[in-house]
Design brief:
Elements: E1 13-18, H1 25-35, H2 56-61, E2 68-74, E3 77-83, H3 95-100, E4 103-108, H4 115-128, E5 132-136, H5 146-154, E6 161-163, E7 165-170, E8 173-179, E9 184-189, E10 192-197, H6 201-219, H7 223-230, H8 237-249, E11 254-258, H9 267-276, H10 281-288, E12 297-306, E13 310-319, E14 322-323, E15 327-329, E16 336-337, E17 341-345, E18 348-351, E19 354-355, E20 360-364, E21 374-377, E22 395-401, H11 407-420, E23 425-429, E24 434-439, H12 442-456, E25 460-463, E26 470-472, E27 477-485, E28 492-502, E29 510-513, H13 522-536, E30 548-556, H14 564-578, E31 585-598, H15 602-611, E32 615-621, E33 628-636, H16 637-640, H17 643-649, E34 656-667, H18 670-684
Parallel strand pairs: 1-3, 1-4, 4-5, 5-11, 6-11, 29-30
Antiparallel strand pairs: 2-3, 7-8, 8-9, 9-10, 12-13, 12-21, 13-20, 14-19, 15-16, 15-21, 17-18, 17-20, 22-24, 22-25, 23-24, 26-31, 27-28, 28-30, 31-33, 31-34, 32-33
Length: 685
Amino acid sequence: MEASPRSRPSGPKCAALIGPMSSGKTTLLEAILARTGAIPRQNTAASGNMVGCGSPEARAHGMSVEATVATVSNQGDSLTLVDCPGSVEYAYEAEPVLRFCDFAIVVVEADEKKLPALQLTLRRLDEIGLPRVLFLNKIDKAAGSVQQTLQMLQTASENPLLLRQIPIWKDGAVTGCIDLALERAYTYRAHAEAKVSEVGDEDRSREEDARFAMLETLADHDDVLMEQLLEDVSPPIDVVLQDLTTELHDGWITPVLFGSAENGTGILRLLKTLRHDAPDYSSTRERLGISDTGDTAAGVIKTIHTSHSGKLSVVRVLRGKLGEGDNLATVEHSNLRVSGMHSLLGRETSKVSSAATGETVALGKLDPVTTGSVLYAEKTTPPDIVPLVTAQSLYAVGIRPTDRRDEVKLSTALSRLVDEDPSIRVEHNQEASETVLHGSGEMHLRIAVERLENRSQITIHTHAPDIGYQETITKSVTQRGRHKKQSGGHGQYGDVVLEIKPRKPGSGFEFTNTIVGGAVPKQFISSVESGVRDYLGRGPLGFPVVDVAVNLSDGSYHNVDSSDMAFQLAGNLAMREGMPQCGPVLLEPIMKVSVHAPSDAIASITTMVPQRRGQLLGFEPREGWPGWDTVQALIPKSTLSDMIIELRSSTAGVATYTAEFDHLERLDSKLADQIVGARVESLAS
């Protein structure tokens, strides 16, 4: 196999900074901004003033909670960097970014505990087909050799990790690096470019071994290079550089660079890689299936609501150009007029008049547009791109404003919250009269509530959401219900006899009648059914009733006083008096759960299932995921609500699960008495 040559991509590029939590992505962004002159100096995480820590929630928790977009000039080329949160609970934040960017910089450190999180990141890049480089951060704090670190990191990657450079050590500290392609040594200097020199004799042997290993990997896809290595011929530098670029673009290798973002070392080599080796928008179009010719097309990577500019849709221009006043459309909306264009540097905006292909800008006043959408020139054919997959909900919390007068403000704030973070889903549970937030974890929703409070200046009460308990009956009863009321003028009269019986689980509600002789006139039978159905919304235990059969067998009527309402009330009365005699029992929802986790955590997970009153169904290797297993179980919904917290605690934050309703199961225990008691108390309050 031989790689096809590729020329150096030039022009605007967009790269995502991703990787495990606390690996130094935001610090690396800060170092790049300082090195390119976008900011006057590099701030520290402790200062709380880094560009990537713009929100009060990020500063309060010391972690990124949203993607930060910053555009800089990299030796005359426009470069947009998007710093994506490292927490697995914010993984969805990166999805639209990775879809529309050209390249990923995976920031890691020599920490074996973070390998599972790194594996998730690299696997997602493989699924998308996005080229990437690994930046080994905190190299000055790494224990062991860089080759040992590479071997450790390789376990998380399915394609080869390729050392692009090796460190120069002096007195236990990294003082520079050797570029294996150029065979040059670089000595780091504070606040200046590294000093270039020849490789020293003391490092020559290490450099030759590392370079040969790099060339061997490149030769897997270059037959000519393989022949040169077999014949002990040193390949020309330009051929090596070409292979590095081509194989990076084709996804055959993941080059590994290193440095210290905190100290500002290794930044220039990374910027050179971005400029000379990283693909550009043409590769992104190819990956998305967008043709090179045609009118304007752009992807929305982020939505921001600001106090001064309103809603901003951050877009990556994939084809054509954008200008003030352009009319755009999405698949769902048309007549979208661009009103205001901005270049972003974190939360700072600066007005621009246009955006060329490949550039990333924020567009104002596109209110109907959502994150992940594709914008295109109005009255043209839209690009055919598969919609983003909906984020998986793993945790939920019920919310309400402490002051009922703030309900309208909360509704508006929720709309903006979901606009900015599509991984949050808002459910209005009419049956339980509550608003529920669904997200990817406890911290995700805790910060979401903080954001709602900070932006809307309201206080929010949170509670565990309604579980969805129901009830059914175990005995049959025949009950008469007679509604009789006399007042001035016409009275009210309705009289029914109902046979109430249990049905098989899952069979639902059935209403029949065996009326003979017109004991209840036909026009009132549907009214009786309405009264019965109305009662079933809240049974004797306080929960919706299921799997019940009701037969109207007898009754009586009055020629003048009988009416639809009278027979509705009679049917409801018969149910209200008869149902408590039917042996009502509580039913709890049981979910079928599939837990995905690293194999070494399966023992703790199989122990976790019975602790949550669950039934273990078995486990097997996760298909296509070496070193991972899938556990199948049936678990009560009530005990599932916080399981993701325990799962992530026992798996370095990487385990996940899917759950779907399986069946309702009878609950007979003190727990049932507690649930019913709490329900009665809440209904009385």
